Amino acid sequence: MAERERKNHIHFYLSDDELVILKAKMREAQTNSISQFYRNLTLYSNIYYVEFDDIREMNTELGKIGNNINQIAKKMNENGNVYRDDVREVKERQERIWQLLKSILSKLP
């Protein structure tokens, strides 16, 4: 018997749902070999790391903008005036969101 080229065995567990997904993806890739499927994924797929800190910060800023807009609307309903400082703060937070979005996009491959 010829000696194997690939001698390293890897073993791991999947839930029933994960196994269904694996089989569907294998069908999509038109392969019946789990080993070949994993090799292709491992050797030829890109790995993407998503940094969620910027997204969390952006979400916080969006919440603050929403709060500011509610305060502006309340003041408008009370006395009919919009204060420059309130509008300025919304614009500054909006600019921060754009910066965060640009940061996120610059990290994408």
Specify the overall morphology: elongated
Largest sheet: none
Q: Could you say how many structural domains there are in total?
A: 2
Instruction: Let me know the average pLDDT.
Output: 86
Question: What topology does this entry show?
Answer:
Elements: H1 16-28, H2 34-44, H3 53-79, H4 84-107
Explained architecture:
With 109 residues, this protein is mainly alpha-helical. The chain has 2 domains: 33 residues, no CATH class; 55 residues. Helix content is 69%, strand content 0%. Helix 3 runs antiparallel to helix 4. The chain is elongated and about 85 Å long.
Q: What are the salient characteristics of this protein?
A:
109 residues
Quick structural overview:
The chain has 109 residues and is mainly alpha-helical.
